[in-house]
Amino acid sequence: MSIAQTSSGPATQEEGAIKTFLRATEIDTRMLGMIGALLAIWIGFNLYGYFVNGFGAFLTYRNLWNLSVQTASITVMATGMVLIIVTRNIDLSVGSMLGVTAMLMGAFQVWVLPNYLGIGHPAIWVLTMLFGLVVGVAIGTFQGYLIAYLEIPSFIVTLGGMLVWRGSAWWVARGETIAPLDQTFILIGGGPYGSIGAMWSWIVAVIACLGIIYMIMSARRQRARFGFPMRPMWAEYLIGGLSVIIVLGATFVMNSYPWPKGIIRNYAKSLNVDPATLGEIGHGWAIPVLIALFIVMAMTFVTTRTKFGRYVFAMGGNPEAAELAGINTKRLTMLIFSLMGFLVGISATISSARLNSSTVALGQFDELYVIAAAVIGGTSLAGGSGTIYGAMIGALIMQSLYSGMVLIGFDAAIQAMVVGIVLVLAVYIDTVYRKHAK
Questions:
Q1: What is the mean predicted confidence (pLDDT) over 149-178?
Q2: Which of 338, 369, 383, 399 has its CA 20 to 30 A from that of 199?
């Protein structure tokens, strides 16, 4: 008996310490699990490359920079998918919506605007992006109207939309690729010229760190003002310090990936200087990544600090009670799908700009990655719960899996199998978590 007491005592104390730490810092255990899974994927792929090829190709500045750019489009759409799934709906059409929106944007800036403004006019990229946002919102609003007011299940509406919009994307140019796109427009897709450089990246990082410190101090003042429980000061310092380290570390990685030598030679030639005088030029933060991060922050604010966000989660938790409480659930549903269309328009801009072309294949299977990102990020298919930052981490996990499998050389069939297995596993984990929480 004494042995049993001795063996169980430390375990109980350790469990108590962990619970105390999590309660004091208010860290979401799901988020810790997702970050742990992400790090395991990164380290696993890197070790695999090291043992097979003699070097790890995953945890390199180049691959991490490319990974951030590749994740941007999925992240933007995943933030909207969170709201849709929270309200117990689904959108299977986002990939096809992206495809038709990108094709229309390509046709607009290559076939239409140059006839009126001339080739290379500085307003072309602005008008094209606005046009894409209008198209995305129009499609999203139309589907939202069918779901909310005609009461057609979202699964059926968006499944039909997946087929209709994919066919429409082919019909725009009869399957032809529209290229090249406007030279200013393609900067939105990233690349050496589509990044803000090392100096501006550090400036953005410092501003972000100051913003983090301000938000922590502001939240603490608000809690004191309304008499809410306060986090211990050591927890505030720990969260703030870790956040600042992550921002500065990520900026260091982005700046450590230099321009290719050929790009530097062309850039030096345009400046009429010797390439040797320029040295290495770091990419810094890519424009699409900054757009995605801004969308994540904006959507987090919308879901946590606005009446619209509170209504969304109230509706997802109990639609009947929300309607009895005076929430216009039909209008809210249509607005959510309109917002999803707006985000698809942004993703279409990023995707087509990154390829410097509009093709019928753009957005193919993106709906699977977007839904998987939201679910892996902790959004429950039962509705009522989900986070924007979780969807961002989920998108990074999905893209890391895909990027790692490409580096290893897995066939496309195996890649699809892995994505399917991960999605089913994520739903299973969500089910177990909810049962445990109850």
A1: 95
A2: 399
Instruction: Give burial (CB, 10 Å; 0-12/13-18/19+) of 240.
Output: middle
Q: Could you give the C-alpha distances from 98 to 26, 69, 365, 374, in angstroms and in order?
A: 37, 17, 11, 18
What is d(CA 423, CA 190) in angstroms, rounded to the nearest whole number? 29
Copy the structure tokens of residue 335.
């607005």
Asked whether the beta carbons of 122 and 172 are under 8 A apart, the reply is no
The amino acid at residue 202 is: W
pLDDT tens per residue across span 408-438: 888 878 888 887 888 788 778 777 776 776 5
Encoded tokens for 341: 């269309």
**Peptide bond before 180: cis, by omega within 30 degrees of 0?**
yes
Tally of CB atoms within 10 A around 389: 18
Q: What is the pLDDT of residues 318-331, one digit of tens each?
A: 999 999 999 999 99
b vs e for 7-32, b when ≥16 Cβ sit within 10 Å of the residue's Cβ?
A: eeeeeeeeeeeeeeeeeebeeeebee
Q: What is the DSSP string of 389-417?
A: HHHHHHHHHHHHHHHHHHHHT--HHHHHH
**Per-residue pLDDT for 31 more than 80?**
yes
Q: What are the structure tokens assigned to 21, written together? A: 């730490």
| Range with the poorest average pLDDT among 13-22, 311-320, 328-337 | 13-22
pLDDT digits (tens, 9 = 90+) for 66-80: 999 999 999 999 999
CA-to-CA dists, residue 110 to 30, 182, 183, 204, 354, angstroms: 46, 8, 11, 33, 16
Three-state SS sequence of 240-286? HHHHHHHHHHHHHHHHHCECCHHHHHHHHHHHCCCHHHHCCCECCCE
Q: Kindly state the helix (H) or strand (E) to which residue 292 belongs, with its residue range.
A: helix 287-305
